[in-house]
Specification:
Blueprint lengths: L1 E2 L9 E3 L2 E3 L4 E2 L3 E5 L8 H9 L20 H14 L1 E7 L5 E9 L7 E7 L8 H16 E2 L1
Antiparallel strand pairs: 1-9, 2-3, 4-5, 5-6, 6-7, 7-8
Helix pairs in contact: 1-2
Length: 148
């Protein structure tokens, strides 16, 4: 089984000094888009939003080095590493300009046919069905992309 997630190759286009936004996908309440294309233009706000994700409950089962991230400089360095290693997407509430979570998509180093998926969601948004909504749409997209 081979999974082709070609939609992740969407790029923003330059439109009179501003990047035009091309969403990867949406759900009824969320916008999911690649962070790579918008990081430089919105770096300060993105770092502040992502710093809110780094709390002990959100990071409980994640790598120990993630648990030591406390400052905006540490978030920025972590974020730049993640952008090099994976397709990193932000999860945003429709109608708001605030990142409430991150979606990580990367192929396994051992097996290029294996897509690994992970996410972080700000604790403030837990228990509201956002993660379930995100996973449902991802599952539909992946099932439509499967090649046997």
């Amino acid at each position: 089984m081979v999974l082709s997630f070609r939609m992740l190759k969407v790029k923003a286009t330059v439109n009179s000094k501003k990047m035009s936004r091309k969403k990867l996908f949406t759900t009824s309440r969320l916008i999911i888009d690649q962070l790579n294309d918008f990081f430089e233009d919105n770096e300060t706000q993105i770092i502040k939003d992502i710093k809110m994700l780094f709390n002990p409950e959100v990071l409980e089962f994640l790598p120990s080095d993630w648990k030591n991230i406390k400052t905006e400089d540490q978030v920025e360095n972590w974020l730049k590493r993640q952008l090099k290693e994976s397709d990193l997407c932000f999860v945003e509430l429709k109608g708001e300009k605030k990142i409430i979570g991150l979606l990580f998509l990367y192929y396994s180093k051992d097996n290029s046919d294996t897509l690994n998926i992970g996410y972080l969601l700000n604790k403030q948004y837990w228990g509201k069905g956002y993660a379930s909504e995100l996973w449902q749409v991802l599952k539909e997209i992946i099932n439509n992309q499967l090649v046997y």
